[in-house]
């Protein structure tokens, strides 16, 4: 799997942990090993600019997903075709504030946002209650599974 992480945020982030989570999530979702994904970490000003440009909403947001080849999750019987999964843009400053509000670590929030963004890249959404339930169940599976795998590491 080709996972490129570029940190332009000015905030120190455990990129190796994000890399491991991303690999875990893509394996969990049966994404082809030749799939490509880019993660860009940006500051609040850059995120606000993207948020306005692409979502027509003011202020910085936590994560934006830009799917490319419209890949969908595979299954145990069939993995996705190889391709360009897309780009995730995450704002660590927003993640830090959200982590404080939620009462968990910034690293946990970064993991949550990464898993959430990956699911959006694979076509998951949370606009409707049943979609939200499905997406958040899969997100929870990924985060719990990753946490258990990290403890065994």
Automatic annotation (TrEMBL):
Cell location: Cytoplasm
InterPro entries xrefs: MetalPrtase_cat_dom_sf_prd, YbeY, YbeY_CS
Residues the entry annotates as binding Zn(2+): 116, 120, 126
Top-level EC class: hydrolase
GO function terms (MF aspect): metalloendopeptidase activity; RNA endonuclease activity; zinc ion binding
EC identifiers of the protein: 3.1.-.-
Key words, A-Z: Cytoplasm, Endonuclease, Hydrolase, Metal-binding, Nuclease, Ribosome biogenesis, rRNA processing, Zinc
Main location class: cytoplasm
PROSITE patterns: UPF0054 (PS01306)
GO biological process: rRNA processing
Cofactor: Zn(2+)
Pfam family, one: YbeY
Any one GO cellular component localisation term in the record: cytoplasm
KW Chloroplast (keyword) present: no
Cofactor binding note: Binds 1 zinc ion.
SUPFAM superfamilies xref list: Metalloproteases ('zincins'), catalytic domain
PANTHER family referenced in this protein's UniProt entry, alphabetically: ENDORIBONUCLEASE YBEY, CHLOROPLASTIC
NCBIfam families membership: rRNA maturation RNase YbeY
Name of the featured protein: Endoribonuclease YbeY
Species this protein is from: Pseudolysinimonas yzui
Gene name as annotated: ybeY
């Amino acid at each position: 799997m080709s996972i490129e992480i570029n940190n332009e945020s000015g905030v120190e982030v455990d990129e190796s942990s994000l890399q491991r989570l991303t690999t875990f999530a893509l394996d969990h979702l049966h994404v082809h090993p030749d799939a490509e994904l880019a993660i860009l970490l940006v500051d609040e000003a850059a995120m606000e600019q993207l948020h306005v440009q692409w979502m027509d909403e003011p202020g910085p947001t936590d994560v934006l997903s830009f799917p490319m080849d419209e890949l969908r999750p595979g299954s145990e019987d069939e993995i996705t075709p190889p391709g360009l999964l897309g780009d995730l843009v995450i704002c660590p400053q927003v993640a830090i504030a959200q982590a404080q509000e939620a009462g968990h670590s910034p690293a946990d929030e970064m993991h949550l946002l990464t898993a959430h963004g990956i699911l959006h890249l694979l076509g998951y959404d949370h606009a409707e209650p049943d979609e939200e339930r499905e997406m958040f169940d899969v997100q929870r599976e990924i985060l719990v599974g990753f946490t258990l795998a990290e403890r065994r590491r």
